[in-house]
UniProtKB/TrEMBL annotation:
The keyword Kinase applies. Signal peptide: none annotated. Its EC number is 2.7.11.1. Gene3D superfamilies: Histidine kinase-like ATPase, C-terminal domain (3.30.565.10). Pfam families: HATPase_c_2. The keyword Nucleotide-binding does not apply. Keywords: Kinase, Transferase. This is Anti-sigma regulatory factor. GO terms for molecular function: protein serine/threonine kinase activity. Residues 20-87 form the Histidine kinase/HSP90-like ATPase domain.
Length: 135
């Protein structure tokens, strides 16, 4: 299995979290994001940027989630990067904001790369952040 980093990910380097698709549970995902980024020795400002990006991605997905859905979050850790993939079942006909939208500008400004896919009634947003050098 190869992630956005282009590097193979092993099951030991992957964390899965599933929470109700409700804004009240996003703190759990933000905390997990910060903890994993800290483990990779990201700088404090990089950790905060990634927390904000995960929060923004989840907000985009919550807006199109089915009732009583679960938000699935997959964190893949490599030597110098953290990939976060958030997936949710979507209501029929739902679409994510356009890549030209403010929400996408936030995601791309706060991460190394951001991508979205939608298929089989599910939407996924993947965020890749590489640790910057010199820390």
């Amino acid at each position: 299995m190869t992630q956005l980093t282009g590097q193979p990910a092993t099951d030991d380097d992957v964390v899965h979290l599933t929470v109700p698709a409700d804004g009240g549970y996003l703190g759990v995902l933000r905390t997990a994001t910060a903890g994993l980024a800290a483990r990779l020795q990201f700088a404090l400002d990089e950790i905060e940027d990634l927390r904000i990006a995960v929060d923004e991605a989840c907000a985009m997905l919550l807006a199109i989630a089915t009732r009583d859905a679960e938000l699935e979050c997959r964190f893949a850790v490599t030597e110098d990067a953290l990939t976060v993939e958030v997936t949710v079942p979507t209501v029929r006909g739902a679409t994510l904001p356009a890549e030209s939208s403010f929400a996408w500008k936030v995601l791309t400004a706060l991460t190394t790369s951001a991508a979205a896919t939608s298929a089989d009634g599910r939407a996924t947003i993947a965020l890749l952040t590489r640790r910057s050098g010199g820390y």
